[in-house]
Design brief:
This protein is mainly α. It has a single domain, classed as I/LWEQ domain (Up-down Bundle). The protein has 7 helices and no strands. α4 packs across α6. 31% of the residues are buried. InterPro entries: TraQ-like (IPR048039).
């Protein structure tokens, strides 16, 4: 078994993890929403208790709603950056891979693997926004707002790896 076959089989197998990322984001989004509603109920039923701001509850609700809709969120991020709609599930079929000849299936498999990791990075970035909204790591190395932003944008670029590579090729002036 050669490396091309191994990579192609891995790419075909890893596609299922794209759906898993969306399902995990859905579950975490529901958890965030339930947690925010619970905090709101506790804050209104126990006056004089622990101070809970409406902004913290609203932010948690917003991030939970965005996580519930991860697939559209990643597509919307990509559309905001490039103006074209993207973000789909499944094997990546890159048009430029045909120039690689017999290695075209391996290129598509590698792009599928990168795309799968993009879904998980986008998911991680959105959960980092929740940490940032709670005041964790403000400034310095552990600035979760910036890390979340970079993960979300980078994840959207990785999910749409074919378009990202094409944009890079046009920017640098490569032809292959």
């Amino acid at each position: 078994m050669d490396l091309t076959t191994i990579v192609t089989q891995l790419g075909a197998t890893i596609v299922e993890f794209q759906s898993l990322a969306a399902a995990a984001a859905y579950g975490v989004g529901l958890w965030y929403i339930a947690k925010a509603v619970n905090r709101g109920i506790k804050a209104s039923s126990q006056p004089g208790g622990a101070e809970t701001s409406g902004a913290a509850i609203f932010t948690t609700l917003l991030i939970g709603a965005v996580l519930l809709n991860l697939t559209n969120t990643m597509g919307d991020l990509w559309e905001t950056m490039t103006g074209e709609r993207g973000a789909g599930f499944g094997m990546v079929s890159y048009s430029g891979a045909s120039a690689a000849g017999v290695f075209a299936p391996a290129i598509n498999a590698i792009f599928t693997i990168v795309s799968t990791f993009g879904w998980w990075y986008g998911f991680k970035g959105l959960t980092m926004f929740k940490k940032a909204s709670e005041g964790h790591g403000s400034g310095g190395y552990e600035d979760y707002a910036w890390k979340g932003f970079i993960h979300a944008i980078g994840g959207a670029a990785m999910v749409n790896i074919g378009s990202t590579v094409d944009a890079f090729k046009e920017t640098v002036g490569l032809t292959f």
